[in-house]
Design goal:
Chain lengths: 430, 225
C-alpha cells in the first residue's frame, strides 16, 4: 500500500472518531443553548403577562391553554408562597393536532389584585430527532469533504514533497557498484530528505571505495603473481631438463609444474575477467556468430574426433552482434568447450543459430546444473575437476557487457545454453 | 649466434640465459634501458629479446632506435601486457614476434628458432632433422623424399618438436602451443597423447630417423636416432 493511502486510511478512521465525539458534544451544547434561549424567552414572556394581568383582569380567568400558550389559575396564598420558577420539558395534548407535543413549560406564581395566581407558560421546543438527523447529514457531508480535500492535498502537495525521495529511490535502483559514475543527490528543502541524501551519499561512496580497492587489489595480485609463477615453472623445467633427477623426484617436479600451471591458468582467467569488467576490449565490429561457430568447430575438430562427439550446426537465421571479436570468440569457445568436455562419448552438441539468438545443447550429466550458482566464480560440479570454474563466469561477464542474456535450460537429460540479444540497447552495461 | 636479452626481472633473465645457453647461443644481458641502448648501438645481434616495460624507459623506443639505425637485428618482444595495441605497434616498428609473459622456455626457443630461420633463408623456409624435411611456409612434410600427410594438429606438434629437438617439452607447453587460448583443461593431455601416438606411428612407418621419448611422464623429447 502506498504511503499516501496509508495516511488516508489512518486519517479517515481517526477523523470518524473525532467527528463522532465532536457531534455528540456539539449536540448537547446546542441543545443546552436552545433550552437557555427558550427559557429566556419564557421569562420575558412571564414578565409581559404578569405586567398585563395587573390591568387586564379578564386574562386572569384562563386556566386552560386552549388557543393561548399560557394558563392562569388562582391558588391559595400558602401554596403560592411555595412556588418557585420551574422550567421543565413536558408533553401537552394539542387538540388541533390531536396528539401530544413536547413543550417547555414554565411554572410560576404572581400576585394581582391581592390574589395569588399560578402561571404556566409553554413554548414549542426543538425537535430532537430532527436536530439529530440534520446534524448527522451535515457531519457526513463534512466528513466527505474533509476526506476529499485530504486526498487532493495528498496527491498534489505530498507528491511534490516526496519527489526527492522518489528521485533517490530511482537512483538507488539503478545503482551498480563500480558501474555508476556519481551519485547525484536530490535537491530538497526537507530536512529528513537532506539527511537521507547525505547518508546515502556517504554510504555509497564508502561502498564504491571499498569495491574499487578490492577490485584493484585483485587485479594487482593477479598481475604480480604472473612473473613469479612463470619463473617457478621455467626453473622447474630447467631442473627436469638437466636429467639428473631420479624418477621419483622427476615425478614430483612434474606434479609441482602441473599445480603451478593450473594456478597460472586460473590467474589468466581472472585477469581476463577483470579486463572484461573494466571494458578494456575497446574495438568493436559486427560479429556473425555463424562464422565464429564455423571457425571454432574447425579448431575443435581434432578434439571432437578424439572425444567422439559430433557437432550439429543448424543455421536458421543470422545472429549478428556488434562486439569485440576476441570476446565473441571467447564466449562461444567457453560454451562450446563446456559442451564438448562435459559430453559423453558418442554424444552430440546441437548448435542452433536464429535471427536474434543462438543455443548450444549437449548431452551429458543427467543432473541439471545449479541455476543459482552456475555463473558464480569458481563454481564446479565436482571439486576434483581440473577446470578453473571460471568459464561460465566469463560467459556471464561478456554477455553483461554487450546487453546479451544467457539462459540455461535442462530437459530430456540435455543441457542447453541460450544466448539472446536484448534489443533495449546497452544501458545495462556491466 | 649472439642474443641480447633486455629484461629487468633478474630471475627471469637468469632462466632465459640458462635456457638459451643450452641451445649454444651466446647470451648478453641488459637489465635496464640505458645498458640496452649502449649495447644495441655498439654491437650486432642475431636476435634481441625485448621487454617493453623497463624501469628507466620504454622498450618501444629501443625498437625505434634500431629502426633509425637501419639495423636488421631480429627482435622478439616479451611483454607482460597481453595487449593488441602493443602487439600491433611493436610489429609495425619492425619487431618480428610478440610473446606474452608468462611463457615456456620451449615456446621461446621455438619462436627464436623460427625467427632466425625466416631471416637466414630469406625465401625458402625449410626445417630438416633426421630424414624429415618440413616446409614451414607450405606446411608440407617429406620423409626420405616421399611426401607424408599429417593433419593440422599433428603438423603443429611435429614442428614444435623439431624446433625444440633434444629439449624437454612439457605437456602443458605443447598443449598451449597447439591449442593456444583453448588449453585450460588437464584432460586435454589425453587428447595430446593420442596425437603423439599417431605422430610416433607415422614417424616410425616412414623411417624418419626421429623418435619422441616420454620424459618422466611430464613431457616429451625429440631425438635423432
Amino acid at each position: 500500500m502506498k504511503l499516501l493511502n496509508h495516511t488516508l486510511l489512518y486519517l479517515s478512521v481517526s477523523l470518524l472518531g473525532v467527528l463522532g465525539i465532536w457531534a455528540v458534544v456539539f449536540y448537547f451544547f446546542m441543545l443546552q443553548e436552545v433550552k437557555d434561549t427558550i427559557d429566556d424567552g419564557l421569562t420575558n414572556y412571564k414578565m409581559f403577562i404578569v405586567h398585563r394581568a395587573q390591568g387586564d383582569t379578564a386574562m386572569l380567568n384562563s386556566d386552560a391553554f386552549s388557543d393561548k400558550n399560557y394558563s392562569i389559575k388562582e391558588i391559595p396564598a400558602t401554596q403560592a408562597m411555595q412556588v418557585l420558577d420551574t422550567y421543565k420539558d413536558t408533553l401537552i395534548y394539542q387538540e388541533r393536532l390531536e396528539q401530544h407535543k413536547p413543550v417547555r413549560l414554565l411554572t410560576t406564581a404572581f400576585v394581582a389584585n391581592e390574589k395569588y395566581y399560578e402561571l404556566k407558560i409553554i413554548s414549542a421546543v426543538i425537535n430532537k430527532a430532527d436536530l439529530i438527523r440534520k446534524l448527522f447529514l451535515a457531519l457526513v457531508a463534512l466528513y466527505g469533504v474533509m476526506l476529499a480535500s485530504i486526498l487532493v492535498v495528498n496527491n498534489l502537495v505530498l507528491k511534490k514533497i516526496w519527489k526527492p525521495f522518489h528521485y533517490l529511490l530511482a537512483q538507488l535502483r539503478n545503482f551498480r557498484l563500480g558501474n555508476t559514475p556519481v551519485f547525484k543527490s536530490a535537491r530538497t528543502s526537507v530536512k529528513e530528505f537532506r539527511e537521507l541524501n547525505d547518508s546515502l551519499q556517504s554510504l555509497l561512496q564508502r561502498n564504491s571505495d571499498t569495491y574499487l580497492s578490492q577490485k584493484q587489489f585483485n587485479e594487482n595480485a593477479s598481475h604480480e603473481l604472473q612473473t613469479p609463477l612463470a619463473i617457478s615453472i621455467n626453473k622447474l623445467e630447467l631442473l627436469a631438463e638437466r636429467g639428473e633427477l631420479t624418477n621419483e623426484d622427476a615425478e614430483t617436479v612434474g606434479e609441482v609444474i602441473q599445480a603451478l600451471e593450473s594456478l597460472k591458468r586460473l590467474n589468466k582467467a581472472l585477469l581476463l575477467l577483470s579486463r572484461i569488467e573494466n571494458q578494456q576490449f575497446v574495438e568493436e565490429q559486427t560479429v556473425r556468430f555463424s562464422e565464429v561457430f564455423q571457425k571454432l568447430t574447425r579448431d575443435f575438430s581434432d578434439m571432437l574426433h578424439f572425444r567422439e562427439v559430433k557437432v550439429e550446426l543448424n543455421e536458421e537465421g543470422d545472429f549478428e552482434s556488434i562486439m569485440n571479436g576476441d570476446l565473441a570468440e571467447i564466449l562461444v569457445m567457453n560454451l562450446l568447450k563446456n559442451a564438448i568436455v562435459h559430453n559423453t562419448a558418442g554424444g552430440v552438441v546441437t548448435v542452433t543459430i536464429a535471427g536474434s539468438w543462438f543455443s548450444i545443447e549437449n548431452s551429458g550429466n543427467p543432473e541439471p546444473l545449479d541455476e543459482e550458482k552456475m555463473f558464480d566464480r569458481f563454481y564446479k560440479r565436482s571439486p576434483q575437476s581440473s577446470s578453473t570454474g571460471l568459464g561460465l563466469a566469463i560467459v556471464k561477464a561478456i554477455t553483461a557487457l554487450y546487453a546479451l542474456s544467457v539462459n540455461y535450460e535442462f530437459h530430456n537429460s540435455k543441457h542447453k545454453f541460450i544466448i539472446l540479444s536484448n534489443t533495449m540497447g546497452r544501458a545495462d552495461r556491466g | 649466434m649472439k642474443i641480447l636479452v633486455i629484461e629487468d626481472e633478474t630471475e627471469l633473465l637468469g632462466v632465459i640465459r640458462q635456457s638459451l645457453e643450452k641451445e649454444h647461443f651466446l647470451v648478453e644481458e641488459a637489465s635496464d634501458f640505458a645498458t640496452a641502448m649502449r649495447k644495441i648501438i655498439a654491437y650486432d645481434y642475431s636476435c634481441i629479446l625485448l621487454d617493453i616495460m623497463l624501469p628507466d624507459g620504454n622498450g618501444m623506443d629501443i625498437l625505434k632506435e634500431l629502426k633509425a639505425m637501419r639495423k636488421m637485428d631480429n627482435v622478439i618482444i616479451i611483454s607482460a601486457k597481453d595487449s593488441l595495441d602493443d602487439k600491433v605497434q611493436g610489429l609495425n616498428l619492425g619487431a618480428d614476434d610478440y610473446l606474452t609473459k608468462p611463457f615456456h622456455m620451449a615456446e621461446l626457443n621455438a619462436r627464436i628458432r623460427s625467427v632466425l630461420r625466416r631471416k637466414a633463408f630469406s625465401g625458402k623456409n625449410i626445417l630438416e632433422l633426421g630424414n624429415v624435411k618440413m616446409d614451414l611456409d607450405e606446411r608440407t612434410v617429406s620423409i626420405k623424399e616421399g611426401p607424408v600427410a599429417f593433419n593440422r594438429k599433428e603438423l603443429d606438434v611435429l614442428t614444435y618438436f623439431m624446433l625444440n629437438h633434444n629439449r624437454l617439452v612439457l605437456k602443458t607447453a605443447l598443449a598451449e602451443h597447439v591449442w593456444g587460448a583453448y588449453a585450460d583443461e588437464a584432460n586435454d593431455y589425453e587428447f595430446l597423447y593420442s596425437q603423439i601416438k599417431n605422430l610416433r606411428k607415422k614417424l616410425n612407418e616412414h623411417d624418419s630417423g626421429l623418435e619422441i621419448r616420454a620424459v618422466y611422464g611430464i613431457g616429451y623429447k625429440m631425438q635423432v636416432i
